[in-house]
Amino acid sequence: MDAESFKREFLPCHQKLYRTAYRLLENVDDAEDIVQEAYLKLWNKREELVIVRNPESFCVVIVKNLCFDAMRTAKSYIGGEKLESLGLLNEVPLTTEIEIKDDLNCVKALIDQLPEQQRKVMILRHLNECSIEEIELATGLNAINIRVLLSRARKKIREQFYKMNKNEND
Asked: Can you list the domains of the chain with their CATH numbers?
């Protein structure tokens, strides 16, 4: 396969590949690196690519596999120390890890749909890890109001989350 054919077949997939990598890794730089690595891998195997029937699907599979490899490698290192050598490697299946990330993204989307005050206190409390006193100073609300808003927000998120999961499983 020559350079022009390669560009025509595989470069239009770039945006989809980047979105796939970013969705899995949640990091702009890592996603860009994975896409570049995928293109390098494709280029090095360009003579074998003539038999590929669906270039986009083929590329997505390569990107996903590279992401999974990167996640496994990152998971096994902390501060440059290999966790296996420390006996700390937690054998959580990669599919479980991806499901957890998807659930987290779902909860973040549900938080974004909350009424303004509930959203604000949820973000301050759970994402920014502020104390009730810090939230009082930031919002001007008293501690009782903050606790009520947090309780209502958590209940609403819990109900919506279970409803979404129930609909997916039906």
From this structure: 3-83 (1.10.1740), 94-169 (1.10.10.10)
**Residue 42 one-letter amino acid:** L
Q: Is there a contact between 41 and 12 (Cβ–Cβ < 8 Å)?
A: no
pLDDT at 115 over 80: yes
CA dist 32 and 134 (Å) reads 37
Q: Give 36-65 pLDDT, tens digit per residue.
A: 999 998 898 888 877 778 888 888 888 998
> What pLDDT does residue 82 have?
42
The residues, ordered by sequence, that sit 6+ positions from 150 with a Cβ below 8 Å of its Cβ are 118, 121, 122, 125
